[in-house]
Amino acid sequence: MAEHMAIDNAPPAANPGPHYDFQDAQAGDLGALAAIADAMKSDNLTDRLESLKRLGVLALAMGEERTRDELIPFLDESIDDEDELLLALAELLGDFVQYVGGPKYAFVLLRPLENLATAEETVVRDKAVESINKLVEVMDQLHVEEYLIPCIARLSSGEWFTSRSSAAGLYAAAYGKVTDAIQSKLRAGYDALCKDDTPMIRRAAASNLVGLVEKIEKGHVLTFGVPNLRQLAGDDQDSVRLLTVEPLVAITKRLTMSECRQHLGEIVQRLCVDKSWRVRYMVADHFVALATNVKDRDMQEELLNVAISLMHDSEAE
């Protein structure tokens, strides 16, 4: 990914800033602020979770500038190792735009969320990705290109599978907010994820391909979407192949009858008779949508035969 998305030493998502001492906070209710600060330093997980719920109060007391320059870096530097706390923080930061000064400062929340997107626990990573995508909705093109694209590049080239799997969930949100040149780099980066040596990364690429297929131009559906679908549908891991059924359905919506017959016929046939019952189950589960989108009569006849065979499948599921 790094070689596909060479970004000129872009600045980090947020200035690390000074380590913040909560005792310096100025507010009308210093007692409440002191209680939040003490709870954040507590050895008790429940107390720390409760303090996170009240971070909005602390942010309002500090003001937008100090929240950006001090509170957010503090949270980033002191990220906890408790999964429950990390999950709560990942969710909180996605709704913290109002406290940092609105959409024009949303980018300062990217750095802690990027770190959370590399967490070991899957639910934490997924929530961090979800929150980043919420930020992208309110960010303008300039900030997406200056801060989010380097973030995606770093995650996509990360040494551990956790960062690369999270990166796959960010491409679709970024794609519609950048120039054609950067879109080309994003497609190249996603190609690399689809061909990654680690099955977990290919699973992430397969499950997030739907979002990209819905965003890319029609021409790129044929030159980018179909080749990657074919690559993933032929994967040696059935956990990857079963995740290609939804992208297949999404691609059939974008292609004409003749294009479906020419480019998808073999893929459909292969998935329908896959040796793994889990893949055949996914085909059966999405069969109506697939049959509805495929307008070619010959392919519909083949799908009818497939439907009959699935009803007689040896696997009860």
From TrEMBL:
Highest rank taxon of the organism: Eukaryota
The protein here is known as: Protein phosphatase 2A structural subunit
Native organism is Coemansia helicoidea
